[in-house]
Amino acid sequence: MFKALMKVRLASLLNMFMRGSKNGKGKASKGKIIGFALLYLYVLVVFGIMFGGMFATVAVPFHEQGVSWLYFALYSILSLALMVFGSTAIAKTQIFDAKDNDLLLSMPIPPSYILASRMSLLVILNFVYQLTVLIPAAVVWALMIGFSFVGLISFILLTLGLLLFSTALALLLGWVIALVSRKSGKKTLITMIFSLGFLAVYMYVCMSAQNYIGLLAQSGESLASAMKAFAPLYWLGNAISGGNVLHLILSIAILVVPFVIAMVILSKTFNKIVSQSQSIARVKEKRASFESRSPESALLRRDTARLFSSASYLLNSSVGIVMAVIAAVMMIIKRDTFSVMLTADMPIGKSLLATMLIFGTAFLIGMIPLTAASISIEGKTLWILKSLPIKTSKILWSKLKLNIIACLPAGLAMWLAINICFYVNIAFTFYSFIIILSYIFLTAGIGLTENLRHPILDWSDEAMAVKSGLSVLFTMLINMALAIAPMVAVMVLSMLDLWVTLAVWFVILAILNVILYSWLMTRGAKKFMEL
Hints:
The protein is mainly α. It contains 19 helices and no strands. The chain has helices at residues 2-18, 30-64, 68-96, 101-105, 111-144, 149-184, 187-218, 220-227, 231-241, 245-277, 295-308, 311-333, 335-343, 350-365, 382-387, 392-421, 426-453, 462-467, 470-530. The protein is globular, with a radius of gyration of 26 Å.
């Protein structure tokens, strides 16, 4: 029975990332599997270069200063943070808020098997995250310093221990988020606050790492003396670098025991967790009022309510908005710094730099893929929309309008910041505005087109609809390409005439918008009714 459950879990994990056919129920083909494997390999290489450069900077200095254990303590902190950040939301939805728990418990399946299969999936996903830090850390140390036999065995065992410990922490945080959201009655808001908090910390660490890595290499001894007070980190690092068997045993105990405790507690309380996740909050009776609205307004209001009722949908689509607003504010705050840079002998002019930032804004706008999941999020209730006595073109336009409205604050904030900090002239202000506006319309249309072509309608968890599938992947890749391509073109062709290059690119954007919207309102509307 457990074997069958694991097959189902692994199949759902695979199809979660690779589904997306005409009816939204297609299975992963060999081509899709190869494509996603290459994509993951690309991500692994990018992270490998980033973490590899970081580890290469500190490996030799730490070894020469006699604090080699600090290298592996740093590795454990980075891998643990990445795994917990990546799996907390998944732990919440898969363990505490899973929608198919009732169905599985109604079958002759032991609850321990259900729990073990979910936990196994969580551990596998954590291991995928861990590899991005594990590979560069191991390769750098092996090439620059070298492992002893005991050290290598310790590294492998403690890496597995970190995997289990991170899973236990993710379970704890997922339980806290689920508990707080149930008590407050505002699941979407609470999940958003926690998720954005994790994202803010993660982004801060990534942005600050390169600034502090040189300082770490120079002050390894003082840092080691401060961190040595936290004995578990020292034991873990020393078990690998010094081959200390006692520290290895202590470290394994510290890492594995919390996971064992978590499994025991969950297995004893699994039925109670399921019943709590399905509990219904009492709502005080309120006098309702009805207001007449036009079909367009009612559709937009419905799509907006659907967005704010799903934490996964809102979070996945709001990252670009948050990043754009933060970038705009930071640009204005650091305006004096940019002024000093521009007065210096810069190899790049003000107009060219401002243009690069405009296309950087387009990149951020492409990270707001509301329409890439707007069809999929309807799921099994799509028939309701299709049965309404409303033109299909109006339904599609409502979904486009929501994406456009969501992108406008991000686009306008960046446009204002760029033109305040790098004012060129009136012509550039106009050019930049219409280009950003064109991108807002184009990215919305691309997302809806891809979601019509590759919907996921049979999802059991909303995260599957908004974070996976070919529609989200293709939308993000196309949007990134449409932002990066003009950057390269402007850098190459700006020597001829920057303004002509911008005008030509705007014409290209306008043509793409006309073609895309014509398709959506005709063949796209027909495709929607065929889903």
